[in-house]
Amino acid sequence: MIDLLNRALQQQLGLFIFHAHPNQKLVKMSDDDLASAGDLLPRFQLVQPQRPHGSVVFGDQSIAGAVLMPHTDDPVDRFSLRIIQDHEIRTWPLPEAPAAEYLLFTRQALTDNPLLRSLLKRTVVAVVGLSGGGSQVVPYLAALGIGEIIAIDDQRADQSNRLATPNLGWIDALFGIHKVTAAKWRSWLINHHVKYTGIRARVPETRAQEALKRADIIIGCVNNLHARSDLNEIAWRYCIPYIDIGLRLITDEHAPDDPRPLSGIPGNQFKAIPGGPCLWCTEFLTDSKLQHETGGRGRSYLQDAAGRNALVAPFNGTLASEAAAEVLRLITGISYSQESRRQYDGFAGTLHEFSVTRKANCPLCSAVLAAGDPIWQPIYSTKE
Ligand SMILES: [Zn+2]
Ligand SMILES: [Zn+2]
Q1: 122-136: per-residue pLDDT in tens?
Q2: Residue 2: is it exposed, middle or buried by C-beta count within 10 angstroms (0-12/13-18/19+)?
């Protein structure tokens, strides 16, 4: 216990005690459980007043417990709990369903089943960036019957988008429709039961951040490393799985004159699960790469001297459908590896998987994981 309290203090984390009462469908805290929570939680709060602390008991399909929020004396007993385990995200309590539906779900997770539908229906997925990639992710999520899609983008559609995606058409470009509005219409036409929240903002603007905190999964379809860095940090702070996709076109820099020949269509898909490796652990993000980007790297897609854009819609489509598939894997648990980075080769049409590992001294993982909202504390006293 002393060791745990020390670690909580060092890493500024809350402390939660978990145990199980097997074979209880509607589980309750026993008198002993309540007594020990009433004894321990205020002590945890003394050591770490800025964090919630709790005691949680699992039944077969339900949870119960007590959570003491910062700066309060009375624990709350109604809450939901998201568990990110090897291959899946589980949010407790589980939906009520007959045993036959549970059995079908565990054996054939993708078979249409009221339990699967209710799991999808209560999931909130945020899609950041609605250009080539994100505009193709949203229709997949709508088709899956995701409960709520939070779409974040501050741009309007223009002609260049028509080459990057089949989901921003001539009419969107003609009227300069906001990308969040265009995606809303497509989502509604595919499945009008899906709640759609469009946020016309950029990350890390406050409105975008507040919306992202509500998400169960964040999909980043942004075209620069700074935005990825912000998204990874938000995902880590609030323990939200983060799926990142991106595509570039590169030309042979050594070729003598324009137009330089196309030398590659590299893309990436990164699944970052809180507790596992982040984008910094794997050096997908580094300080020098971020600095280099600020030093004037422009658009991610190719544009020739005459300002002509490149046709990339099908390449974006591969990555977008994989991002949507990742959502389904996380919810159903059919995934075979917890975290991975996959590299896309647009010339060959292949996705290569690389295993990634967590770095011991990673700055993001050690300072920000599960940190919640930033806490502003005075570092010196203004009193004389
Ligand atoms: Zn108990
Ligand atoms: Zn890390």
Answers
A1: 999 999 999 999 999
A2: exposed
**Domain presence at residue 128:** yes
Place of tokens 């007594």: 35
CATH of the domain at 128: 3.40.50.720
Distance CA 346, CA 352 (A): 11
Same domain, 29 and 155: no
Q: Residues 235, 257: contact at Cβ < 8 Å?
A: no
**Residues near 19 by beta carbon (within 8 Å), at least 6 away in sequence:** 33, 56, 57, 58
Burial of 324 (0-12, 13-18, 19+ CB in 10 A): buried
Assess if residue 106 is contained within a domain: no
Token match 């991106």: residue?
246
Structure tokens at 92: 């407790």
The set of residues, in sequence order, having a beta carbon less than 8 Å from that of 287 and lying 6+ positions away, is none
Q: What is the Å distance from ligand 2's center to 279 Cα?
A: 6
DSSP 8-state code for residue 159: G
Cα-to-centroid distance, 79 and ligand 2 (Å)? 29
**Cα angle 264-273-317, degrees, rounded to a multiple of 5:** 35
Tell me, yes or no, whether 121 and 74 share the same domain.
no
How far is the first Cα of the chain from the last one, in angstroms, to the nearest whole number? Answer: 39
Question: What is the mean pLDDT of the segment spanning 12-33?
Answer: 90
Q: How far is the CA of 282 from the centre of ligand 2 (A)?
A: 7
What range defines the domain where residue 25 resides? 2-79
Q: Give the number of the ligand closest to the Cα of residue 279.
A: 2
Cα distance between residue 229 and residue 246, in whole Å: 13
pLDDT reported for residue 309: 85
Peptide bond into 314 cis (omega under 30): no
What pTM, to 2 d.p., does this model score?
0.91
Question: Which of 333-372 are b and which e, b meaning 16 or more Cβ less than 10 Å from the residue's Cβ?
Answer: eebeebbbbbebebeeeeeeeeebeebeebebbeebbebb
In tens, the pLDDT along 319-363 reads 999 999 999 999 998 877 666 799 999 999 999 998 889 998 898
Structure tokens at 296: 């004037």
Closest ligand to Cα 369: 2
Could you check whether the bond before residue 204 is cis, i.e. omega within 30 degrees of 0? yes
Ligand 2 centre distance from Cα of residue 130 (Å):
26
| 46 CA → ligand 2 middle, Å | 29
Please count the residues of the chain: 384
The mean per-residue pLDDT over the stretch 221-236 comes to: 95
